[in-house]
Amino acid sequence: MTRAFLDVDCSATGRRWVGPDAETARQAEALTQAARLPAPVAAILARRGIAPEGVPAFLDPTLKDLLPDPLSLRDMGAAAERFLAAVTGRERIAVFADYDVDGGASAALLLTWLREMGHAATLYIPDRIDEGYGPNEPAMAALARDHDLIVCVDCGTLSHDAIAAAEGADVIVLDHHLGAETLPPARAVVNPNRQDETGELAHLCAAGVVFLMLVEVNRQMRVAGRAGPNLLGFLDLVALATVADVAPLTGVNRALVRQGLKVMAGRKRPGLVALGDVARMNSAPTPYHLGFLLGPRVNAGGRIGQADLGARLLATGDPDEAAALAEKLDQLNTERREIEAAVRAAALEQAEARGLDGPLVWAAGEGWHPGVVGIVASRLKEATNRPAIVIGFDGDEGKGSGRSVSGVDLGAAVQRLAAEGLLVKGGGHRMAAGLTVARDRLEAAMERLGALLAKQGAGDRGPADLPLDGVLMPGAATVELVEQIDAAGPFGAGAPAPRFAFPGMAIGFARRVGESHLKIGFGDGIGPRLDAIAFGAFDGPLGPLLESHGDARFHLAGRLEVNDWGGRRQVQLRLEDAARAV
User: Fold this and answer.
1) % of the chain beyond a pLDDT of 70
2) Half-sphere exposure of 392 (CA within 13 A, CB side)
3) Cβ pair 502, 472 in contact under 8 A
4) Among 181, 186, 182, 126, which residue's Cα sits nearest to residue 156?
């Protein structure tokens, strides 16, 4: 085992610090020389495997270079042709969407496009508790009686019976969840995660798939001598869905998010403007804003309120309606946090009693709200570095959600469990899954799932390492440096933001902010001091350690960001970990 970075084998949060390996360091040095990049930026590109000749294209990802041919996806031609025929023929169209951000944004893409074409459509989003995920037979049958075309977005790939129930209507599926060996009886199933796909576009979220269909629809219209809506203005929705659905920010997703953030900064979409205002976004949007401020609020309606609120907010063109919907979603998000905190505490206590050293961490409880079990599963996964499942029971059935760690395909394992009859139903993708399980099958299902995940190496992991890109001193942490680092983004899933260590720092002040956050000032005693914020620090050992620093020196680790509070642009460290300097 290589030596720990700065000799930190066990940090305040129990992690081993790992720096760049020798080869990455050599590549970074070569990039610094050949491309004249600042060393921290070169370290990012070296970690991503970018050669000197690839630097310009990487730093300026464009849709022109990266957008794939929509027809490279199976059934895309048929889907676009049928959709366009419905619009041209003034047919009755319904959009059936999932209740999360990706589903809501996907529906809003279609509804906005149709509105600009002067065509109304029906939005249908199932209730999470009463109907569950995806198309169901009663809803599809009812929609088919009043519509000629039903477009299922972010769902439908595994809905064989429900789609068969849509008698008299054509169905198009635009999805990204893992497919089974057989496809449902739809007119077209466009999904980069179909089993007969190449997998080259498997990183797309559903909104990305919908956007590609609209690109193909616009192309078919141009061939026919007609003009469609300008799709560049739709990229704010694609960016939001891509980040909120934790899709890897690689390939075309980098360009979609980069361009989408620029569109969002123009504040043209009433729903996102209103939501940003209630979330008190006071700077240009970043992936952080999308994932942690906007996304949770859009999700709040589907989690604990009215399922269609988020999609309606994203699709509306009316600023007054947008303001009302945003306010409601903000209130629901506050309620969601309170419900989540109670379930999280109970789930963690149960999981700890069961043991946290196996290949799967799981918890199940009576009456746990199905709208928050996914968030709680994510928290358990982060705390244990293992796949986690959290299930809420109501009667004889429980609805659960799971989150996985890198390198462990949870969706495939859950899908296999369903095929073996241990689940009522289940599916998902590599990093997340949903399931329904009978009470009397719970223990057997979780035991079997643990065994399947163990075969993928899930039980072999200790505490997660903390990867670091290098060392910085406070005087080097300038606004200019942060802007240069941001040019190598966007950062998120599959493309983590760079994390730096500040060695041997003296803590100038440390104070609690709110209930669980920590703010500190630190320096090396020579140059300028830097401020840092550690969210949730008092939920673990980091906050108490630094609050009672006793003038000791610490190695500090985190990510740099620009704080625009009060109209002043200042660099601060988003502190993630610390260790006593020996």
Assistant:
1) 99
2) 21
3) yes
4) 186
**Mean pLDDT across 360-364:** 97
| CA separation for the pair 496, 517 (Å, rounded) | 22
Predicted local confidence at residue 179, as pLDDT: 93
What tens digit of pLDDT does each residue of 450-492 get? 999 999 999 776 677 899 999 999 999 999 999 999 999 999 9
Q: Return the percentage of the chain with pLDDT > 90, whole number.
A: 89
Helix, strand or coil, per DSSP, at residue 201: coil
Per-residue b/e over 476-490, b at no fewer than 16 CB within 10 Å? bbeeebbebbbebbb
Rg value, the chain, Cα: 24
- pLDDT digit string (tens) for 64-75? 999 999 999 999
Q: Are 360 and 386 in contact (CB under 8 A)?
A: yes
Q: Quick one: DSSP state of residue 67?
A: P
For residue 169, the model assigns a pLDDT of 98
Nearest to 188 by CA among 107, 290, 80, 53: 80
Contact call for residues 318 and 350 (beta carbons, < 8 A): no
Q: What is the side-by-side strand order in the sheet with 170-174?
A: 122-124, 93-97, 149-153, 170-174, 188-190
Q: Using H for helix, E for strand and C for coil, what is the string for 351-371?
A: HHHHCCCCCCEEEEEECCCCC
> How far is 496 from 522, CA to CA, in rounded Å?
25
Q: Residue 189 — φ and ψ, nearest 5°?
A: -125, 105
Q: Which of 529, 530, 507, 510 is nearest to 519 (CA)?
A: 510
Q: So what's the pLDDT on residue 1?
A: 67
Helices (H) and strands (E) in the chain, counts: 21, 18
pLDDT of 554: 98
List the end-to-end C-alpha distance of the chain, in Å, as a whole number. 21
Q: Decide if 423 contacts 414 (C-beta within 8 A).
A: yes
